[in-house]
Request: fold
Amino acid sequence: MLDKTKKDWWKSAVFYQVYPKSFQDTNGDGIGDLRGVIQRLDYLETLGVDGIWLSPVYASPQKDNGYDIADYRAIDPMFGAMEDMEELIREAEKRGITIIMDLVLNHTSDRHRWFLEARSSRDNPYHDYYIWRDGAPDCPPNEMTATFGGSAWTYVPEIGQWYFNQFSPWQPDLNWENPVVRGELCEMIRFWVAKGVGGFRLDVIDNIGKEPDHGITCNGPRLHEYIRELRRRAFREDTLVTVGEAWSASVETARQYADPDGSELNMVFQFEHMCLDSGGEKWDVLPLPLVRLKKCYERWQTGLRGSGWNSLFLENHDLPRVVSRWGDEGNWRVQSAKMLAAMCHGMQGTPYIYQGEELGMTNIRLPIEAYDDLEIKNAYQELLSKGRTPEEALEAIYARGRDNARTPMQWTDGENAGFSDGEPWLPVNRNCLAVNARAALADPDSVFYFYQRLIALRKTYPVFRDGAFTLLDPEDEKCFAYTRDAGGEHLLVVCNFTAEELPEVCPEQFRGAETLLANYPDPAGPLRPYETRMLYIKA
Ligand code: GLC
Ligand code: CA
Reply:
């Protein structure tokens, strides 16, 4: 077990993201709940993770699955009660698992008491908690658009003003320029720290310094000032884990967010590697340019070395399943899921596994009516209005839609994959007959045990945490190979990203080295489809 009183403990840790709505239902309403997470803690302990990032469980109208919070200090009854949350924190801790909560500080729900007050009159003390502009009802303050479609401004006729909503009208943005708002949020964070929460994932944190009058959402002038204030006032203990979601992060800004001086956050989720297989927008699906991916990782690995810290991830609740995206879910599901895992976990940083990734869960294809996500629904209409056929629009959704990752966790090959006794809120993927946790636990060659082994390796060999990254054969379009070197330890990671046989990659130094992990028996000679090998030597 990691010593979590050490301030850098998260550098050796592996986290697991639970999307509670889809994890485990215990009362038959078709919706995952906190008791379900408690029930599955033993499973997570077997996997070996050190912490859970729990997607939002706060009281919420669920317009955006909890990323629209109506009360930061209450648990949504759909997920359980505060006692369940407290029990989860305690039970997780017994198993060496720290709970990291999701903090949505950029906006609230339009049902939050603050917003109901704010919109009731211009003189209400809460009015200034949000961002308002005067204007005629037919003329929003400017052309800015909301992430989930439509204008970023919504008119409230009762007071003759527009409020700013970066994501959707149900998610009004908080006014961070108001010091009272910042104070409230800091106090709320202390409420959760007092409950024993060990850290936070900060939703769209790069947006909090916005200046809507100038069209600025990300990287506003006061962004880092606000984050430093949060660190000083709310994240007081330096053992708390803090990871910011920052779609706009570059290596340069990540150095600031994750400055080792501890003045801001521990790390950020950056998304450069996740945007390489898209054109102008997320729905423009392109093949993965492997050379660019390799160079992107190289830039992040070398760029933050000693001056920041990387997060490592391939999936989350907003992204499609990686085995469907960069692997081959049809012919080489198990091999390619393991290869991608090795590629990711071999690097320097803190890995995050998204629920079901450790089973090699895949994307789903549903009729448009069966989707739940507001982004998918809006995108479908927008794609049609831009001239795509319904088939084309659906293909884009099959490739990129967020519900791909949100289908219920596949526990068994039984009814509803063991997720629920009732009708699941989102359909279960039919491949649960083959792809499920029970089958994985019974098969020593499963993707699950490969992840378990990767987690254990990170704890055993310091080179995983400390090693300097060197990219091999940068221009090779089919194979991703790199080394890690530190203190006499040397690690080689080789990944065949194709279904073709490729020439062996093995620098002289690694001839006869120990194999730490591989996804085929007898790992030697030419690389088989989606083969991966991790070789190790200690001087
Ligand atoms: C983040 C969340 C996403 C949510 C959005 C708005 O990107 O991960 O699920 O919809 O923020 O809160
Ligand atoms: Ca339930």
